[in-house]
Structure formats: C-alpha cells, structure tokens
Amino acid sequence: MTHRSCFDARLIVLRHPSNTNPTRTILPDEHSRDVTIAAAYKLERDRLIGDVFFYVQIFSALGFGVTQGILMMTTTEGVSVTWLLFWGVFLLINLSLSIRAHQVQPSRITRQTVVTYAIWTIMILLDTAIYAAQDSVIWSAVDTWTAAIALTGIGVTVFIGSRRKLAVTDPLVRGYLAVFFKGVPQLTLAYNIVVVGGSGVSVFGILTGHITICSRLGQILMSLREAGWDRNRRGSAISEIANEGSWIVVTIAWFVVL
Questions:
Q1: Which of 22-31, 94-103, 140-149, 228-237 has the highest mean predicted lDDT (pLDDT)?
Q2: pLDDT at 27 over 60
Q3: Is residue 6 part of a domain?
Q4: Which residues contact 218 (CB under 8 A, 6 or more apart)?
C-alpha cells in the first residue's frame, strides 16, 4: 500500500455541500475527543437536572410536613388518618428498598433517593402523630372503607405477584401497590373533603403534591427518551399516574368546598 493510500485511510473527509472542495479534515483522535466532550456535557447536564429534582423534593417534603402539621394543630377537617397511615407505610417500604439498592450499588442518585424517602417518611410520620394527638375523631367510616379497599387491593396484588414469582421489589408490583397505597386513600380523602370540608388540608400541601408528582413524571419521561419503555419505567409510570390522577381529584374537591 502506498504512502498516499495509507494516509487516505486514516482520514475522515467532510466535504462542502457542493461536493467539490473539502472544507475540513478530521483525524480519528479529534473525532474521539468530540465524542468525549459531548458525553461529558450530557453527564453534567443530567447531573444538574437530577440535583434540581432532588432539591425540589426536599423543599416540598419539609414544606408539606411543617405546614400540614401546623394546620392540623388548629383543625383536621377533611383529613383522614388512613391517608396518612397508608402514605407512611408506602414511604417506609420505598425507603427500605432504596437503602438496599444503595448498599448493593452506591451512587449519587441512590444516595439522593435514600435522603428523599427518609425526609418524606419523617415528615409524614410526624404529621400522623400530630393528627392522632388532636381531640377530633381519629377513625371514621371513611377510614374503614379506605382500609378495606386498599388492603384488598394490596393483598390481591401481592398474591398475583407471588403466583407469577414476582417479589414486592419488582417494578410492576410496586407500581400497582402504589395505586392502593396512594391512589385509593387520596380518592377517599377527596370524598371526605366533599362531605365534611377541607380546611384541614394545607394550601401548600395541595400545590406541592402536584409539583413533586410532576417532577417525578418529568424524570420518567427523560429516562424514557434514553432507555425506552422498560419494566422499571412502566412500574414508575403506573405509580405516578395513579398518584397524580387521584391528587387532581383531591384538588378539585378541595376547591369545590372552599
């Protein structure tokens, strides 16, 4: 092979649209450097977006916990204890799963996930304790119906999952469990608000509910563009769509009784 042919084989020639004169000659090393720079930029962008979502979750968790707790010291009108209890149990499950995931493969994302679930869990448990300390009725007929429907759904989900040899950690199982841990209690919360009033649910709680859910849906949509519609994202989508749909119903009920 001649010197010229060897040289030509090592070059990537980009020609002018007129296809007459070459405008730039790029060596393989230069092309690799461009790819590396693009990958580094994408990594930094994803890290920044992830940090924004993380701080939104932390702000929302602290804000919701404090404002809801202070409000319930004055009134618990419309609040149902099953809403807080099922939410707290769901958070505890997710907290334990996130801790396990971090222990298996620690990363910045898993660490942020653990912190997020930990703060939400603490806030909801504190609000539940504040609610229980009030003189108002702790358990009502709405709570009985909520517990019956949610526990039945949870039991059926776990049973079907076990028949298909799927653990609670399976993304789709967790997605359907979220429907009964979050979706059902929020729908009965909406009914309770319509019946007795909603002054015990904070304005900040209504707003941050949508902000936090939509931020998680945004994360799911971003990951869909890169990784596709896999099992993990399907489970997450089921969970958050049920969460947002039922919270929209709560919001409508809250506005109706204002």
A1: 140-149
A2: no
A3: no
A4: 53
Torsion of CA 69, 84, 136, 152, to 10 degrees: 180
Cβ atoms < 10 Å from Cβ of 16: 10
Residues 6+ apart with CB under 8 A from 118: 95
Beta strands in 41-199 (DSSP E): none
Residue 17 lies in a domain: no
Q: What share of the chain is helix, strand, coil (3-state, %, to 5)?
A: 80, 5, 20
Say which residue the tokens 């590396």 belong to. 36
pLDDT in tens, 156-189: 999 999 999 998 888 899 889 999 999 999 999 9
Contact of 141 with 191, CB cutoff 8 Å:
no
CB 187 within 8 Å of CB 243: no
Q: What are phi and psi of 5, to 5 degrees?
A: -65, -35
* Structural domain boundaries, residue 192: 27-256
pLDDT tens-digit map of 73-128 = 999 999 999 999 999 998 998 888 888 888 888 888 888 888 999 999 999 999 99
Q: Give the residue from 193, 195, 173 showing the smallest Cα distance to 255.
A: 193
* Phi then psi dihedrals of residue 61, to 5 deg: -60, -50
Q: Looking at the domain assignment, is residue 197 inside a domain?
A: yes
Q: pTM (2 decimals)?
A: 0.80
Please report whether residue 72 resides in a domain: yes
Say how far apart CA 238 and CA 258 lie, in whole Å: 31
Give the model's confidence band at 223: pLDDT under 50 very low, under 70 low, under 90 confident, else very high.
Answer: low
Number of Cα atoms under 13 Å in the Cβ half of residue 26:
12
Spatial neighbors of 157 by CB under 8 A, at least 6 apart, are: 173, 176, 177, 180
